[in-house]
# Entry
Amino acid sequence: MIEISLKPGAVKRAIGKLGVFLIGAVVCIFMLFPFYFMITSSFKTSAEYMSPQPTFFPHDFSVFGYKTIFAKIDIFGRFFLNSVYVSVLIPLLQTVVCLPAAYALSRLNFRGKNLIFMLFVVAMMLPGQLTIIQNYRTIVKLKLINNLNSLVIISIFSPSCIFMMRQFFLGLPKELEEAGKIDGCNTFQNFLHIVAPLSVPTIVVNLILCFNGVWGDFFAPMIFLKQQTAMTLPVGLTVIMGALSSQDPTVLMAALTISCIPVMIIFFIFRKKLISGIASTGLKL
Amino acid sequence: MKRLTKLLAGILGFAMVAPMGACGGDNPIIGGGGSKELLFWCNAGLISQWEERLKAFTEETGIEVRVEGVQAGSWGELAQQIATSAYSGNLPDCGDLATEAIASLVASDLLLPLDDYIERDRAEMQESFDQMAPILYSAHEYDGKMYSLPTTWNRVCLFYNKNVLSEAGIAPTDPNYPHEGWTIENFLYCCEKITANNVVSGVNNKYGIKLQNQYFLTIEPWLNAYGTSILSEDWKTVQINDGDAKQCFQMLYDIMNAEDVKHQYSPKFGGTTEYDLFCTNRLGFMSVTMEYVSYLYNGGFNGSANDVSKLREGYDVVSFPSVDGSLHSTIGVGACPIFKTSENKEEAWELAKFLSSKKFQEEYLTESPWAIPSIKSAMDILVQKDFFPESGELFYDALQYATPVPAPGSYSAIELEVRKWFGGYMSDTNGFTLTGTGSNSLDSLAATIQQYLGE
Amino acid sequence: MKMKCPKLKKRYDNIGYLFVLPAFALFMIFAAVPACLTFRIAFYEWDFLSPDMTFVGVENFVKLFEDENFRTVIGNTFYFTVVTVLAKVGLGVILANFVASRVRNRVGQFVMESALFMPIVIPMSVVALVFNKMYDYEFGVLNGILRIFGLGPVGWLTDADIALNSVMLVDIFKGVGFFFIIALVAIRNIPRAYYEAAEIDGGTKTRQFFAITLPLIGNTLVFLFVTAFISSFQVFDPIYIMLNGMFGDTKVTISYMMWQQAFFYRDVGYASVIAIVIFVIVLAMTLGQFLLSRVMVKDD
# Structure
C-alpha cells in the first residue's frame, strides 16, 4: 500500500504486474486449451471440425455428437455405469480393509508389526507390470475376466492408503485411547468408536483420491475387461468409441466431455481437500 | 459414533447390492453362457453395422444376438486377441472373421469343423451353394475339413477421385488415366501430376495415394503389382525379399519419404484417414475394399446426398496397376465360423447359414454392401444399383484371376512381423534404402518368416 | 494439565493380527506372491495357452540382451523419462515459485492453481485422446494454428522423429500440476522471515529463489524427482493410445513393450524378464532417494 505512492517505482511496478499477468495468462491458456478444444469441438458439426481453418468457437452450434452418444446409450451408458461402480466400490472397500490395518500398524503392539509395515512399504514400490501377469492368471482362475469385480478384488489392498492413514493415526494423542480403556472399551471398540470417527476427514480425502485414481485407471481394466459390456470408460472410450467415431470426431469429443463431468464436479467441490491430500501424502493419482 | 457404524453398514450394503445393480440383467460376466443369446464378435469399428444386419436374423429366427467389438488394427491382431481370450475361457459363439484370422484360429484348434452340419442341411442350402464360385466355397477348407461358409469376400482395388484427377489435368483420354491393365508408370505419372501443385505452397495439400501399414490392403497388392508376393504360391517359402519385392519397397519408401513435397505422393502412416482425405478431394487414390462404396454413398460424397448420380461423377474404381499391365488380385473371404467352445452351436449354425444364404445376400447386401457377396445373383443385382461405381463389375471379375491371400496357420505371427518391419522401415528417416541396411533388414525379416513357415 | 502415564510393562495387542489380516491376505495374494512368481516365470517359456510351461533357464535373459528392439525401447524410455522429469519438476517448481512470490491477488492464485491442477484429475486416456485429435496432421487444431501464422504443418504423431516428443508433451501437460502443487505447499511453508531478511539485504526475487527457496525445499525436490522418475519410467497409457502400432513399434517405451510381449505376443516368460528390469530400475531409484535424503538430513 505504501509503496504505490512512491512514484519512481510505480511504472516499474505496473510493468511487473503486467508481466506477471501475461505469464500467468499464457500458462493458463496452455493448460486449459485442450479442455476448451474438447468442449467446443463436441458442439461443432463435423464439417466445421474438418475445415482447414480452425474455428475457436462453434459457428454452427450442433449437438449431433451428444445425440449420437445418447442413441448409443446402451454402449456408452454401460461404460459410464461400470466406471461408477468400480470408482465407488473400490475406495469404500479399500477403507474398510486398510483402515484397521493402518490402525494396528500405528497404535497396537504385536510381534512382526514392523516387518509387516516394511513389506507394505515395499509393496508400494512394486510396479504394476511385475504383478500383472500372475494377477491375470489368478483372475482367470477365479473366472473373473470381463467382470468388474476383478478390478475391485485386486485394488482393495492399497499400501498407499495404509501408509496415509498410518501417518494420520501416528499424529493422534495416545491419551484418547487410554481414556477409552478407562471407560471400559476394548481395542476394537476403541478403534470403532473413538479413533475411526476422528479420522473421517482423512478418510474422505483418501476416498476422493482413490475415486479419481480408479476413474482414470487404464492398464488393468484394459487387460481384464475385454468384453464391451464390462468395459470402464477409459478403456471403452479408447477401444470402442475411437472405432465408432472414426468417421465423426465430434462424437468422440462429446463422449470425452461427458466422461470428464464426474471428476470435474469432484474437482470443484473438493479442490482444497484434494490439494491438501496430495500435498500431505505426496501420493500420485 | 453411530455415524461410523452406519457408514460401515452402508459400505457393506453397497458392496453386496451394487454388483447386481451395475451388472444385473444381461450377465456380462462370462461370454457364451447357457442362454439362447448368441455372442457375436466383430471388429470394434463395425459394431453398429453388424447390430443392424443381425436384426434381420433375429426377426426371422427369434434368436437374439449380442454383438461385441474387439479392437484390432488387422486380422492378425484380431486372431491374436481371440487366442489370448481363449486362455481366459472367454470366446464368442461365432464372429465376423476373414480368411487371415480363420487360418490362425484353425491352427490354434479353436474352430469347429462344419462338414456334418453342411451335409445335413445341404438340400436346404443347395440354391445358395449353386451361386458360389468354387474358390469361395472352399476358401476355408483345411486338411479336408470345412470350417465355414463364405458370407462375403473382398479384393483390393484403387478408388480414384475424378475431381482430383481432372484438377491435376489428367483427362480420361490421357493414356495414363486409370484403366484396367494400366502400369505402375501410369500410376506414378498420375501421382506426380496430382502433387505438382504442392510445390507452389511448399506444403502437402494433395496426395496421390495414402499407403497404409496393412498386409492385405497395401503390402500384398503392391508386391503383386511387381509380380511377386509375400509368400510363394504354395505358402511354403517366403518371397518378400526377392529382387522384385525390393524394388517394390524402394518405390513405396520413395513416394512416402521423398525430400521435396512434389514427390511425396503419400502421407505418413497414421493421422488423417484416407476416407477423410478422399472426401475432401485431397487424395487421388485409395487402396481399399468394397465397403468404401457404401461409406462414400452414406457419407454423401461429392454432394451426392441429394443426387445419387453425383457419386459416379466423383469417383470410380480400377484394378491395381502392375509393372507389365497384367491383372492380379488377392482375395480374402469373410465368414461366420463357429467356436468349438460354443454352447449354442445349432443357433450359431443357423446364423452362419443365414449370412451365406441367397435370400439374405440378395436383400441386405445389395442395399448397403460391406463386401462383395459370395452369391453371384446378389452381385448381379448390386451392379445395377445407381450408387454403385461405373466399373463396379471388376469387383466380382477378380475371381477370374484371383489368388487367395497368403494365410498359412502361422498367419498372425507373420502378419505382425511384416507390419512391424514395414512400419519401422517406412518411417526410418535416415534415408533407408534397399541397397544396404534396408536390404539386410528385409533379409532377416524373411528368415524370421521362414522359421514360422517351417523348413 | 497433561497427565503423564506411568511406564507400563510392554503389552502385546494380539488383536492387531486380526486388524491386519484382511489387508495382509490380499497383499500376499495380489502383490507379494505374484511378484515372486514373476521371477519364476522368467525362467520358463509359456504362451498362456499351453497347459505346461517349459523350463528354458536363462534363455529369456539372454534374449533380452540380444534383442535390438529392447535396446531401442530402453533408449526411448530413458529419453522419455529424463526429459519429462526435468520438465515436470522444473516447470512445477518454477511455476510454484512464481505463484507463491509474484501472484498476489486471490483470484489470480485461484485461477493459476485450478488451471494447473485440473489435468491431474482428468483421466490420462481422455487427455491422450484429445491430444490425438489436436495433433492430427490434416485436421488437427495445432497445425491449424500454425497455418494461420503461415508455418508448415508438423507431423506431430506421423513423423518418426517427432512422435515420441509429442507424447512427452502430453505427459508433461498432465503431470506438471502434481509437482506444482507439492512444490507450492512446500514453498508456502517456508517462514516469511527468511524472505523479509533477504529483502532487507536487497536480494532480488531470482536470488531469493536460488538462495532461500531451493535449498529449503531440497528434500521435497529429491522426493519430486524420484516420484516423477518412477511414474514416467512406467508410462503406458499415452504410449498405448497415441503410438500403438506406429513406426513398427520403434518409438514405444518399456511398459508398452512388456504389455505387448505378455498380452499380445503371449511370450510370457520374456515379458516377465522385462517386468523384472522395470522393477530393478524402480527399486534402484527408490533406494537412491532413501540414501540421498538421509545424506541431506545429516547435512542439516
